Amino acid sequence: MIFICGKNFGRVQFYLLGSPLFLWRAIHNALPTTHRLHKIFPHISPICIRCALQEEDVQHLIFGCPSSRTVWFASNMGLRIDQLPNDFSVIVKNILNDFQEDHRKMCFSIMWQIWKGRCDFYFKAHQFDVQSVIEKAQLTVYPKLQNVLIKQRKQHFDDKYELEKDMALLITDGSWDQKGNMGIAAVVYDPLGCLYNQVSKRGVAADALTAESNALLLAIQQAKSLLRVFTKICIFSDSQILVHCVNTRSVQDVPSWQAIQVVQQCIDELSDVQTITVKHAKREALLMAHTLANDARKGDGDRLCISQNQQDLRASGFFVWSLD
């Protein structure tokens, strides 16, 4: 049990699993993030080494980076990342005040594992694996879960989606709310599983299926523009009805008349292309695209991030490439 004091933080006590100093350093902005290191060594870039989108301060490291946001989304901890205060110490205080003990331990353990995963990514060139981060946090808090997690991991590997050798991977997702706001995203990985680029857009849509249709259209257009780089591209969407309609080249089964026109555009875009395929994958395999789509829906603009050779963010463990 350790004690932590900080500005406007009061004196609190809690269990911290992992590194006793990690949370203290995070609260006091003493973690060696690229933002902090840049102030000491100007030649070091302050930009986040995982996403290459923003400067990496503590807030971005733990909650703001798309890969960290994906961890919190997949953990089902109930944290509304988009509504968190900008002061990290206030977030910690809220967790201490509002969460039960096991949830507190889990939140702090996830923070610790995100930091460790980030360091392994930077210093050892290990992929930042969302599932591994969550499992390590769970095992720290609940050691008896070992056998359960082994079983889950086996199921995880049984659910892999196989791609042809030298085929690029594009995952896409759409986000929609009752006010008609839409966010769509497409994330491209090269045949080695490294992140190549990602694009997200904000707009309006009449319903969720129309948003998903626009996301698929964005993905198809991105894929066609990349055929000069990759010879074969496979697009994955979590909408079974859209995948079925595109592959059968029919809009008869589209239940939303608002989406029919967009689906027809998808079909037309693929009519003269033989090297782009569209397949279905469950949402858990598309968390990066799902997170970006949600961010776009809540944000105020479009984003395109070309990350060639800037990072080595690997594709989800759900996808494997054939060696033949």
Automatic annotation (TrEMBL):
InterPro entries: RNase_H-like_dom_plant, RNase_H-like_EbsB-rel, RNaseH-like_sf, RNaseH_domain, RNaseH_sf, RVT-Znf. Gene3D superfamilies: Ribonuclease H-like superfamily/Ribonuclease H. It comes from the Eukaryota. Residues 172-296 form the RNase H type-1 domain. Pfam families: RVT_3, zf-RVT. One of its GO terms (molecular function) is nucleic acid binding. Residues 21-72 form the Reverse transcriptase zinc-binding domain. This is Ribonuclease H-like superfamily protein. It comes from Rhynchospora pubera.
